[in-house]
Design a protein that fits this description.
By secondary structure, the protein is an all-beta fold. The protein is built from 1 helix and 8 strands; from the N terminus they run βββββαβββ. The chain has one domain.
């Protein structure tokens, strides 16, 4: 009997893609900053968000007094409130003593509703949702889409 190995290629969420076409950028009105999204792990349905300088497109630390939040969707979801999202770097600062942090990345999920609070303004967006067919499935397996009324 012959055995086979299935290898599912996936990227690490924090790795920036080499292909510039995979970046999605939106300027934040009235500021020198933009938000940039790029795909992370397809299997985990993750994306990375980072703040960049609009002109240079260089990633930066989150600007002062700016916070990133998850908004429950649908809005009426019980038991789920707004949750602050912390950057990977902020989360792991204690485990990286002495390592200078010059930029930050936030991990978001497909279809997640996000709000970025800044002094006197906020921006809201929904993370793109990748269709299921872009996710790897095991060869020979069957995939069904179900719809509940």
């Amino acid at each position: 009997m012959r055995s086979s190995t299935v290898v599912i290629a996936d990227v690490s969420t924090q790795e920036r893609p080499r292909d510039p076409r995979l970046y999605q950028t939106q300027p934040i009105p009235g500021t020198k900053y933009s938000l940039r999204l790029f795909p992370g792990s397809y299997v985990a349905r993750e994306w990375c968000l980072e703040f960049i300088l609009t002109r240079s497109e260089k990633p930066i630390l989150t600007p002062a007094n700016v916070t990133v939040w998850h908004i429950p969707d649908p809005d009426w979801a019980e038991g789920v409130g707004y949750n602050r999202i912390f950057s990977l770097e902020d989360t792991f600062t204690d485990s990286l003593p002495g390592v200078p942090i010059k930029e930050e990345k936030y991990v978001l999920r497909d279809g997640e509703k996000v709000i970025v609070y800044m002094p006197k303004k906020s921006v809201e967006f929904i993370v793109p949702r990748r269709p299921p067919h872009t996710l790897p499935f095991l060869p020979g397996g069957e995939h069904y889409k179900l719809a509940f009324a």
